[in-house]
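User: For my dataset I need records formatted as: sequence, then structure tokens, nothing else. Please produce one.
Assistant:
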Amino acid sequence: MIVKKQKTIILFLLFACTLFLTGKFVVGLSSVQTNSKNLGQVLEFEYDLQTVFKPESYIISFGGGVYTKNAYEYNDVIWKDVQKRLMSIVSDLNFEKNLSYLSFEQWCDQLQNRGVYFRLPFSMSFDELCILLGIDKNNSDLDINIDGIWISKDDSQSIYLSDEIQKIYCRLQVEESFDKSYEIANVIDIIENDKIIEYRRISDLFSFNLSESDNVSENKENFITNELFPVTNKNIGFIKITTEFSMDEKHESLFKSFAQKAFGKNFNFVKKMTDVDESIIYVYGYANKALRIGSDGSIEYTQRFDKKQGVEFNFRDGLKHALYYIQMYGGIPDTLYLSNYYNKSDDMSRQILIFDFDYRIAHLPIIYSGKSYNHAIHIEITEGQISKFYRQIYVLDDNAESYVLDNARTFNETLNENGSLIQKNYLEVKDNLLGISESDLWLYILRDIVNVDIGYTINSKEKFLYPIWKCKVNNHKYNFLLYK
């Protein structure tokens, strides 16, 4: 391994020297012309943004405190109906007339009814929500960041929105009921009769009574949570996968097309290298642009910022730009969804928009734990220019079938087996709780557990998807194998 790393370093140093010695002769293709051409193509690129607007999780309430999550093949059916309802309300919304707010207690009561809660993949403004729905509505008066949408089976005139961070909950109501043909009520009945993983509210399952001897001052109301805890399990299959492409000769034309998209057809000033792991690296000019086609099936493109081409992008422009590059470098997978978005400024005060995308296989999310960006696709746009693009997508292996085992662990068993690790990580952040009893420590941990769900993690060596229990405790993410 050390020898390989040394070879790679030497290779890059030799290449850098070559660039330095020949650089003064490099005039090449104008980056201004290239960027202008690309921007024009992006502006002409048409894609329905609703296609990548999907919830992180779907929570179905059967009433009476019984829930399930992610009813697999029904997710898309439910979500399409909700998008129609959202568009119907938002398109002609009068905030003074249609908007009302709920207390936390009213919100908790609402979630006890039959309905569906859609947890969004990131917290978004109302304007960003409208953009993802394809609605041209800007500068709204609704000053909350939306992270969840609740639809009640028994209230056909409303949609409820949540801002869990700020504990703000509101109701958008219209005068006329929605079309009775919408499928949510029927689908809830169908799901209820399926074999499901049953969830209950953590607050309903556990009695949050702290020991008086621990001398920890905590209001019991702070332990009220709507987060769910799975009380049953389900056997989930292992799935054989493969990368989108391999490094064999049959993909050489594909690699060349990627390089032409990055640098144009003129390769006079493009250097090509092969890394020790057989990855292919293209570099243009003084490393102004670089494209790496990894032997692990990844594609990474980086570009230095050209201040002559800097323009300020908004959320809509940036997302459209990102999707254009995803389409250009491998296409847009059917189950792709926007999983995160945020913006920041670099040390030169330049605006950078960051878009992350993920996807599902067999209706379950693919978790990129420990990967370069912890997402399938990561894109950074600096003042209208793609400064970083990373993609690594796995697909089903056509020559192999999935297989299912019978001894899936419950989430409770998983917590017990990993309790020491969870407690250690928790106390590193909550050091004010050092010394309290283990039983009380678990009450704090249970209060802070969020987003418990089933997903898939990638075993890149064996090329398999392994089913997992995933959750987050006090911002620490865990992925525990479903099987021992």
